[in-house]
């Protein structure tokens, strides 16, 4: 049974930083590309960042490029999202997911990030 568990979300002031984690189990993590998505209130879920199996290649939405960094530790079965220079518009529930393109097979339950102005 695949499980993805996000953590690290909290209330932070604009300009601050957070690091989200996604702990994976029930899959061969090192063989699985991964993504972060987010969903703000009254908006559709959107792609944030993606990372290949090895971590060698990463991909970002234009809205977070230069501020967010996706990474992974395959020995720990964990993916991360380092978020710097946070803005109120980054407020959302952040989800980790498997795959790097196309349909998502597995989602985490999400972690709330709130950025106050």
Structure description:
There is one protein chain. With about 120 residues, the protein is mostly beta strands. The protein has no helices and 10 strands. The strands form 2 sheets. Strands 2-10-9-4-5-6 form a 6-stranded mixed beta sheet, with no helix packed on it. The protein has a 4-stranded antiparallel beta sheet with strand order 1-3-8-7, with no helix packed on it. A hairpin with a 6-residue loop joins strand 5 and strand 6 (about 60).
Main pleated sheet:
6 strands, mixed
Distance between the termini: 40 Å
Radius of gyration: 13 Å
How many strands in all?
10
Mean pLDDT: 97
Shape: globular
Count of individual helical segments: 0
User: What structural class do you assign from the helix and strand content?
Assistant: mainly beta
Secondary-structure element order, as H and E?
A: EEEEEEEEEE
Strand order, sheet with most strands: 2-10-9-4-5-6
Low-confidence stretches: none
Determine the strand fraction and express it as a percent band: over 45%
Helix content: under 10%
In brief:
The chain is mainly β and 117 residues long.
Write the layout of secondary structure elements.
Layout: E1 3-7, E2 11-13, E3 18-25, E4 34-39, E5 46-51, E6 58-60, E7 68-73, E8 78-83, E9 92-98, E10 111-116
Parallel strand pairs: 2-10
Antiparallel strand pairs: 1-3, 3-8, 4-5, 4-9, 5-6, 7-8, 9-10
What distinguishing features does this structure have?
6-stranded mixed β-sheet; 10 strands; 117 residues; globular; mainly beta; 4-stranded antiparallel β-sheet; 48% strand
């Amino acid at each position: 049974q695949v499980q993805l568990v996000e953590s690290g979300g909290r209330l932070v002031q604009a300009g601050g930083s957070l690091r989200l984690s996604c702990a994976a189990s029930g899959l061969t993590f090192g063989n699985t590309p991964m993504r972060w998505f987010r969903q703000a209130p009254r908006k559709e879920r959107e792609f944030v960042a993606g990372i290949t199996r090895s971590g060698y290649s990463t991909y970002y939405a234009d809205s977070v490029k230069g501020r967010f960094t996706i990474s992974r530790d395959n020995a720990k079965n964990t993916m991360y999202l380092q978020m710097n220079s946070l803005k109120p518009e980054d407020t959302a529930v952040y989800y980790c997911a498997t795959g790097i393109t196309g349909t998502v097979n597995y989602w985490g339950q999400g972690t709330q990030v709130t950025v106050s102005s």
